Amino acid sequence: MKRFPARMTCALITLACAAPALADDNTAIENEVAATAGTAMAEAPPIVVEPTLMHPSAALMNDHMHEGGEFMVGLRWMRENYGGANRSGTDRLTDAEILAAGYSVRASDMTMDMVMLDLMYAPNDDITFMVMPMWMRHEMTMMGIDPMAGMDHDMSGMDGMGGMGGMGGMEMGGHGGHSMGLGDTMTHSVEGISDTLVSASYRLARTGGFNTHATLGVWVPTGSVSKRNADGSFVHYGMQPGSGTWDIEPSVTVSGQAGAVGWGTQASYKWRTEDANKSGFAFGDVAKASGWASYALTPSVGAVARLGWEHEGAIEGHYNGPHGHSSPSDIQGNYGGDTVRLGLGANALLPFGAARRPQLSAEVAFPLYQDLNGIQLPEDWRLAVSLSQTF
Length: 391
Known about the structure:
Layout: H1 6-16, H2 26-37, E1 71-83, E2 87-89, E3 91-92, H3 95-100, E4 105-124, E5 127-132, E6 134-144, E7 174-175, E8 178-179, E9 185-193, E10 196-207, E11 210-220, E12 247-258, E13 261-272, E14 281-282, E15 286-298, E16 301-312, E17 316-317, E18 337-349, E19 359-376, E20 379-390
Antiparallel strand pairs: 1-4, 1-20, 2-3, 2-19, 4-5, 4-6, 5-10, 6-9, 7-8, 10-11, 11-12, 12-13, 13-15, 14-17, 15-16, 16-18, 18-19, 19-20
């Protein structure tokens, strides 16, 4: 079992006492607006800022709590897009440099889609439970970069295994059951049920326009880590839908508001509690921190800007079955690193429903900085869209 880093525990505790963030209390917001307006404006209808408009991002989880007795159903879709020149650290690499590092194939682009069902229930004002099952799909295009691989290109398919022979997908120029000549491309995809998040949030403070809550999340390994290529070899580590390990993710969120303006911060740490899954490996731990500011443009529409940092460790262990080594995506050390992203989003209450209108939220995020482990395909952008209804 891995040890939970003490420095992350200290960071989460420190954050609980940090700057205020986004409010989650409709009554507190109305009182704030009324106090700001003053008695001289009493005859004018007050501006009421809905708390749903102050939620930080469609891409954040466990960012808010509910009042006692409330139940929420939400559907969330996220897409991550990767492309461009492969990188090592912060440096762009040429195909010649990747070839010199011992690889004959590289990734040219990849998309990852996630669909999540958010189910939340608050038995009282201080506790909110959430269950979030997830479905995931990866699609990656590979490109051959070895000039010598073309000499064996015509032999592909001789044994019905795409020319892989008895090497399990590890011959020069071979990849996932296909021979890859110089400049050749091949697109493959994997999809399936991913891991399920079960969490409980506890309210630490709620005073006026200030809120703080702590969350303990557990990722249940319901996703597969045994997806394989047509030749029987494992797919790239990062294309497996699940983690295969029980993961614990504590987080702290503080939020505050002043009239139509909201701000906040959240920190979390995903701890992989096992050294290896049934396929022989374990993904790296993940630390995240976000800070945001929001503004209610109207009582029904709000805008959000968010700055986020993410650190992910490299993969530990090694596949315990046949797998390729021809591309950087096949090697454990070519995963993880540090990324800083800027997210811009909007929230809107849809114009139907009674007292509780459904909320539509969206955020698009772009990396400002990437320092990647080993050799990797960098991230281009990511998009998150969510629709939720509280009862």
